[in-house]
What we know:
Blueprint: E1 5-6, E2 9-10, H1 15-39, H2 50-60, E3 67-70, E4 78-80, E5 85-88, H3 90-93, H4 98-116, H5 119-149, H6 154-190, H7 199-231
Helix pairs in contact: 1-7, 2-4, 4-6, 4-7, 5-6, 6-7
Transmembrane segments: 6-28, 141-169, 210-231
Keywords: Membrane, Transmembrane, Transmembrane helix
Protein name: Zn-dependent protease
Amino acid sequence: MPYGYRYGYAIDPTYILVLIGALISMFASMRVKSTFHKYAKVRSRTNMTGAQAAQRVLNSAGIYDVTIRHVAGELTDHYDPRNKTLNLSDSVYGSTSVAAVGVAAHECGHAIQHHKGYSPLQLRSALVPVANLGSSAAWPLIILGILFGGAGSFVCKIGIVLFSAAVLFQIVTLPVEFNASARAVRILGDIGILSEQELPGTKKVLKAAALTYVAGAAAAILQLLRLVMLFGGRDRD
């Protein structure tokens, strides 16, 4: 029997990996929200909104074909390379805080990456279809493998391979996000949108945001490790 029993109930020790991943993700989410809310109260010296700062950052990089849009939600900001749109959330688009300016500039960093053909971004974009397939098909395949072939069956292993593609996507995302933040901080200082006194606050916001991607990657790796431990062994009855 692979797992121990206590008080008549099976205990799967690999659940500790899921728990660790969940705690890391929870901490990262709480950290980014608290840091953003703290610096969302600090108005930037130039009094530029997130949208205005984004437009200036893009123009300073020679980019004039990206449309800046207002989208609903909090911290739902993202750059879409498919239609070249920079989507800024309620708490960023019209806000003049150093937090909003920093997040807007970070998304501009992705637009600049796209404009310049940044290799890790191109790799991440190429992985999107495979990662989506892995995320949606991995667990159904693993369950089917267990039902018809047992844990460790070939079908289970295919599911694990597909899940690995989703994990790879998470890992490749890290340098893309770090680079976008570095570009944002540098440009905000170079073109005078934020002063030297304001930049540390923006850096803290972007570091907290980057932590969520690190947490996501860590949680995915732990989940993959759990799948390998449970279903990646030899076929067994």
